[in-house]
């Protein structure tokens, strides 16, 4: 695949801009305002909105490297699915009313669709691995990073040796080299993940550690892991809704606290004693 074919839809337009005619530039500027809208327009509708001819639309999509308008529209749909926020922003005035109700309903739906399919025995097995592992590793990038940090922080209350990756100032390799078969790893795979996701999952599998993958990427079930925990993240607006991801993290942390029993309570008690003596809280 050539570099031009790898370029994103917006990058193609911006690269082509210097060589476009006046009407084509007007069309390009119209599309760049809300590129995601292209997925719902016909070529005739887009031409009318931009104030250009259908022939201009045809020339334009060919100049930016697509064989047809439909191929360009499919590229936009793929970028919407991948999670690009720019492609999920609606035009001005879209969905103006009832935003709070839509967001609340979508949040509730995502929580239900994330938690309802879970198997109790599988969750118990994962929590047991989290509790008994030599070291627990939480790995997350971009949207997955705050969830990895949240789950790691909650679990740290009842067990030591919890590490969140990637760590500041370190390469992944410097940390991955320390993962052993007696460890447990939870990998957050949320859209849009870094390109190394597949290679990282393969490396974690080779480490022999007990691995769980949690997220919404299309290839989640294909990633090598002992546990796969799909999360519903459909959004009512431009961004994905991660209410289901947070609910799953909260559930795992709560089950972990219950699982560690008296040992966990002793650690919690020691932490509270230190809070008092240091006056931190």
List descriptors.
single chain; Arc Repressor Mutant, subunit A; Rossmann fold; Homeodomain-like_sf
Written description of the protein model:
The protein has 281 residues and is of the alpha/beta class. The chain folds into two domains: 8-86, Winged helix-like DNA-binding domain superfamily/Winged helix DNA-binding domain (Arc Repressor Mutant, subunit A); 101-278, Glucose-6-phosphate isomerase like protein, domain 1 (Rossmann fold), CATH 3.40.50. The chain has helices spanning 3-6, 9-16, 22-33, 43-50, 54-63, 69-82, 99-115, 120-132, 144-155, 172-176, 197-207, 243-278, and strands at 136-140, 162-165, 184-189, 210-215, 227-230. The radius of gyration is 24 Å and the shape is elongated. The chain starts with a helix and ends with a helix. It comes from Roseicyclus persicicus. One of its GO terms (molecular function) is DNA-binding transcription factor activity. Residues 7-83 form the HTH rpiR-type domain. This is MurR/RpiR family transcriptional regulator.
């Amino acid at each position: 695949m050539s570099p031009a074919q790898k370029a994103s839809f917006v990058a193609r337009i911006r690269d082509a801009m210097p060589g476009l005619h006046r009407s084509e530039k007007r069309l390009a500027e119209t599309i760049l305002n809300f590129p995601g809208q292209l997925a719902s327009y016909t070529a005739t509708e887009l031409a009318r909105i931009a104030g250009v001819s259908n022939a201009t639309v045809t020339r334009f999509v060919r100049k930016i490297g697509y064989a047809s308008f439909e191929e360009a529209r499919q590229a936009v749909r793929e970028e919407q699915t991948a999670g690009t926020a720019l492609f999920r922003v609606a035009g001005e005035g879209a969905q103006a009313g009832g935003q709070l109700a839509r967001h609340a309903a979508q949040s509730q739906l995502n929580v239900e669709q994330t938690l309802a399919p879970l198997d109790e025995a599988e969750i118990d097995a994962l929590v047991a691995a989290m509790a008994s592992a030599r070291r627990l590793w939480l790995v997350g990038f971009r949207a997955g990073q705050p969830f990895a940090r949240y789950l790691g922080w909650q679990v740290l209350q009842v067990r030591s040796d919890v590490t969140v990756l990637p760590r500041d100032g370190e390469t992944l390799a410097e940390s991955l080299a320390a993962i052993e078969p007696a460890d447990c790893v939870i990998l957050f795979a949320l859209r849009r993940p870094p390109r190394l996701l597949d290679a990282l999952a393969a490396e974690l599998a080779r480490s022999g550690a007990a691995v769980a993958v949690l997220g919404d990427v299309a290839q989640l079930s294909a990633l090598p892991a002992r546990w796969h925990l799909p999360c519903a993240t459909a959004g009512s607006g431009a961004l994905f809704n991660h209410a289901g991801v947070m609910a799953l993290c909260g559930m795992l942390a709560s089950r972990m606290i219950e699982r560690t029993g008296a040992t966990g309570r002793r650690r919690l008690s020691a932490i509270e004693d230190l809070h008092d003596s240091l006056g931190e809280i």
